[in-house]
Amino acid sequence: MKTRTKTKLALATASLIIGMTSGLSNAAEPLITGKVDCIAPAGPGGGWDFTCRSIGRLLNNFSHGDLTVQTLNMPGAGGGVGFAHMITKRSHDPKVLAAASTATTARLAQNQFPGMSSDMVRWVGAIGTDPGIIAVSKDSDIDSLATLITRLKNDPSSLTFAGASAIGGWDHLKILMTAHSAGLSDLKQIKYLSYNNGGSAVTQVVGGHIDVLVGVASSTKGFIESGDLKPLAVLGHDRLSPPLDSIPTSFELGLDVEASNWRGFYMPKEVPEEAYQWWVNNLKAASQTDEWKQTMVQNGLEPFSLFGEDFDQFVNKQVGSLATISKEIGIIK
User: Fold this and answer.
1) E runs forming strands in the chain
2) Nearest by Cα to 212 from 261, 156, 259, 168
3) Comparing 3-130+260-328 with 132-235, is the CATH topology the same?
4) Class of the 3-130+260-328 domain?
5) pLDDT grade, residue 198 (50/70/90)?
6) Which of 189, 213, 251, 285 would staple 156 via disulfide (CB 3.0–4.6 Å)?
7) Which segment of 57-71, 170-184, 250-264 scores lowest on mean pLDDT?
8) 33 DSSP assignment
9) pLDDT bucket at 113, cuts 50 / 70 / 90
10) Which residues form a coiled coil (predicted)?
11) For the chain, which residues make up each domain, given as ranges?
């Protein structure tokens, strides 16, 4: 590869962040140029599609045409088709990424990708998150997460929870993780109703038809600001951005629960280490640009940055914890 090409893309990559340290210049070696596929393992318009297209557009702009990231929609098996494609067809290819989220780890934990596991790919980084949230209607007599937990301990079936995922899906798992962290053991008794989307679940709780909402910050923000929903906790380490920064986190309330829907990427297991580190460094750089921060604000996402080995360890720990919960409620054996 010509030195001129290396220099050009190194400068383009360095322009991702104004004022960053010289560590970014190392991200340009080895150089990855030309067409790159970002697999969105679902149809157009969903979260994985958004992740690929948003970061792809950002990297395209800053590489001045030397890097072209195209989104490759590959729906099927809840992300399993894309995961299998990465493992079986692109195992040594440094010019392919795939979008992932907490839905990916939940399905891996529940063996929904037969014969595949989280250690069969390399986890590159997380670039943002939609934090999980627990909320009740404004008229509910549940005034805190502690009150909710006390009621569940007295009678696990006394409350009904609403979410947008299926039974055993991510919204369902959020309340199970919370209850498990609080010391509840009979998780099967906790009642959960699944709705087609987050909006329907919110409407049922706001209307007083369902006791508790288990959702995400992006779809509840407007209802919290209007006073129709009363938030009990954000399920993670960090508080939400203003004006919702008064909501306590699960960790502040003494519960070890990280239940945000992170957005991130994985790539083939057998790529060279230099190529893996190139993507780690460049995605980290992209996640810190003003352009990406504005994209997060516009789409209701919060900062969540984990890269390289830190992200890999996070993913595998999450898969393990979700597998434990799933076994306890009988989803898997």
Assistant:
1) 34-40, 67-73, 96-101, 121-130, 132-137, 160-163, 191-194, 212-216, 229-235, 261-268, 306-307
2) 156
3) yes
4) alpha beta
5) confident
6) 189
7) 57-71
8) -
9) very high
10) none
11) 3-130+260-328, 132-235
